[in-house]
Request: fold
Amino acid sequence: MDINSIYNSMQKALKGIVPEIELKYKAELVYKINNLKKEKNAIILGHNYMEPALFYTIPDIKGDSLELSRKAAEVDNDIIVFCGVKFMAETAKILNPNKTVLLPSQKAGCSLAESITADDVRQLKKSFPGVPVVTYVNTYADVKAESDICCTSSNAVSVVNSLKTDTVIFLPDEYLAKNVAKETGKHIIFPQILHGTEQKKNDVDILDYQLIGWKGRCEVHEKFSVEDINNVREQFSDVVVLAHPECSPEVVEASDFSGSTTTMIKYVEKLNGCKILLLTECSMGDNIIAENPDKDILRLCSVRCPHMNQITLEATLSSLTDLKYKIEIPEDIRLRAHKAVQRMIEIS
Reply:
């Protein structure tokens, strides 16, 4: 496809969402990236949070973290370029150790992944011996390696139920853990872990608990509040509010629907005759608007993930040109992490 054809396609999909002058410039970048993909036998995976100009052009596979994990295990290309954040690219490398996996920006991290370390998990396992560890996919490889099984926001409840055990350690998202606890009917606690010393005896010993959580949060989804929802409902009585399960339990409770990014996309497709408010990363909101021009979706989102925002067409072109930044995982960590990720995929 030549530059003019790419530009016309982008204009059709993104008019009113991406400025005209930006479309003309980015069509050239898309043309160069597509040529490099063929030249280097590369495939591009794009998360739902990518900016519209990127999301609707260069990814060969698009989706949420679960869908991309599934597809990453099946690709045949020599190079995988992951337009997402570091833990996602790591997951692709865990599943494809013999392929070159590239992350277009070194700054594409994650507040959730940064909230917990492998040593934290080891301390929890020491404090609660024999309790299986479920780790949200939004974690780094060394944390996954300390886990029994991974999960995503779309299958967290199914994963917890699949273990058929009374007690589960669920890490690291505080809000997702609370929402899972509510849905599964489990009592949740957040114990204090003391590094370098034995865990002190405290009220944990006498509490009736079934879910052991961690105080990590997504810096995007923690910003949404019940007040936001109430203010919108006062203005638009027919609004349907969709919230990601990384939002607080109070926000999820005040919403009409809660689900993963892919589930939210499918839910929007079924809605008609109402206004829609999406409480999630705002680029995903723009992508849904572009896909559903006939829907009345409120443009009230102003929360952009600063890490996802590091992944641009410019950075992707540079990544493919210079084969940077390569994801490397020590083999002993990769093998242990692979077991946890593979179990998640099999259950899904």
